[in-house]
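Researcher: Going back to the complex we discussed earlier. I've cleaned up the inputs and rechecked each line, so this should be the final set. Can you rerun the prediction on the complete assembly and write out the structure?
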Amino acid sequence: MPIDVAADVIANQPLSADYNVLALAAPAIAAASAPGQFVMIKANAPALNDPLLRRPFSVFEILRGADGTRTGISILSKRIGVSTQLLYDARPGQRMACLGPLGRPFTIVEPPTEAWIVAGGVGLAPFATLAEHLRARGVHSTLFYGARRAADLFYLDFFRALDVELVLTTEDGSAGERGRVVAPLDRRLSSRSPTAPVMIYACGPERMLAATAQTAMKYGRPCQVSVERIMGCGLGGCYSCVVPMRGDDGGAHHVRSCLAGPVLAGDQILWD
Amino acid sequence: MDLSVRIGSLTLKNPLLAASGCFGYGVEYADVVDLSSLGGVVSKGLFLAEREGHPAPRIVETPAGMLNAIGLQGIGVRRFVDEKLPELRARKATVVVNVCGTTLDEYVEVSRILSDADGVDAIELNISCPNIKEGGIQFGCSLAGTFDVVSAVRNVTRLPVIPKLTPNVTDVASFARAAEDGGADAVSLVNTFLAMVIDVETRRPKISNIVGGLSGPAIRPIAVRMVYECRQTVKIPIIGMGGIADARDALEFMIAGATAVQVGTANFVDPFIWSKLLAGMREYMERHNIARIADLVGTIDTGHTVAERSGV
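Model: Rerun complete. Updated structure for the full complex:
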C-alpha cells in the first residue's frame, strides 16, 4: 500500500546544469520500495496550484543510516519543465509530498543469468537500486549507458563499486563509443552463446527503448523496459499514462503504465 | 452532526463523491481510501462494449488545472458488473455508475443491465463528454436530446437518474430544466470545459486528441456560477463539481445550491483528500452551528455583496 510522506529534503546534489540527485527523508517508502518502483512527488507546497499535479520519478537510490536501516530515497531528475526546475532548485529542509512506492517492479534474475542493463540519459534512474539487488544475488551485471556527452554520464563509480561492467557511449564521442547505446548491445548479443541466459533491463528515451526491445527480440532475449509517460495520479485513477500493448487475445490494448508498469515486457509493447 | 444528504430516493452518508473518470472503477483506490467513508464513488464512463480510448499523451497541465482527452477508455458495462461491482459491494461503497452511449438505445441498454445488477445505487448519464465525437455530447448539447435520453432511461430503471451536464453551452440552466422535465432525479455539473494547449516550439497540440476538457481549480468560479444558475431554475437536487480542492470549495458549491459535490482532479494531487474534506466540513458545521449539512444547501445570501457589508 502506498504511503504519502511530507518528506524533508536531506540533500540536493547538482550533477550538471540540468541533472540533480534529490535525497528525501522517507523511511516508510524506502522500506517498502523494490527496484523499478516509482514515487509521485509534488515539487511545491500541497496547496499551491502551479504546478498542480505531482510528477512520477523512479526510486534512484535507497538511502541507509549508519546501522543499515533504510532512511530515505533519492531521485535522479533532469530539468525539463516547471516541476523539475523546482526540484533542481530545492534546498535541504524543504518539504515535499512524496507518494509511494508505486507500480510493478523489475523481476530480478538469479545466476547464472546475466543482467544487461541499458540506460539512456535520465533513464539511469531505476538502475542504482536494481544493480544493488542484482549484486546481492550474485548476478553478473553489465551497464550499457548512453548519454549526449561525457559530462552527462553519472554515478559511474557507484556502479563500478558494485562490480558492474560498464559499456559507455556518447553521441559526441567524448567518452566511450561514439553513437547510440544499442549498437554495443547488439554486438554483444550477437556474439553471446544462445544457451547462455541474459535478462535485459532498459530505461530511457522512447526510441532507445523501442530499439532495445527490438534488438532483444531479434536475439530471442527477454527484455524488461521501464516506460515513462505523462502521469496524472500514479494510482490507476486517471488513465493518462497508457501504453499500447498486445493482449492475451492478440488485440491491441491501452495498458496503464502506473499499475501494470512502469516495468513492462518489451516484446508486448506495440512500438509505433 | 448530520452529514447525510438525499439525492432522490438515495441517501448519501455525506455529500462527497469521487468524480467519474478521476477514480478508475473505485477498486483502484480500495487500498488507499475506505470506500465506504465516501458519500459515493462515480465509476468511469461505461458503454456496452469495451473501448480503448485515445493514444497518449492524454493530459497536459495548465495554469491551476489540467486538460484531458482520455477518450472514455473502458471495460464495458458487463465486465464492470462481473469484475468490479462485487468488490465495490464488498467494500460497502455507494456506487454511482456513469453511463455512456453512442445512441439512445445504448444508454437504455446499459442502464437496464445496471438496474438488474446487484450493488448499483444510481446512474449518472454522461451526455457531456467533450472528447469523443460519437458519445453523448450530441444529446447533451440539445435540449430535446437531453430530454429524450433522460426520459428513455427513466422508463427502464427505478434507480436515481442523474444526467451530467456540459458547461459548453450558452445556458446550462435550460439543460437542467430539460433534464428535470425528462424525469431526472438530480443533475450533476459541470463536466469539463472544452479547451486546447499548443506547444509553440513544435506548433503541435499537447494532447493527441488536439482538444480536451479543462478541469481543476481554474474552472471553479465558473462552475459555482453554473450551479447557482441551475439552483434558480430547477427543484431537483444538484451535484456540483469543478475544481474542488478543499472543504471550503465544497461548502461554496453547497451554499450556491449543490446538495452534494464531486471531487476529481484534486484526488490526483492528494488521494488521501477525503478525510481532510470531511474534517473541514465538520469543523465548519461546528463553527457555524449547523446540525445538518443539508440545511446549508442553497443558503447563499445575495441581499448584499461583501463590499457593501464591510462598508468598502
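Model: Worth noting: The longest helix of chain B spans residues 273-287.
Researcher: Good, that matches what I expected from the previous run.
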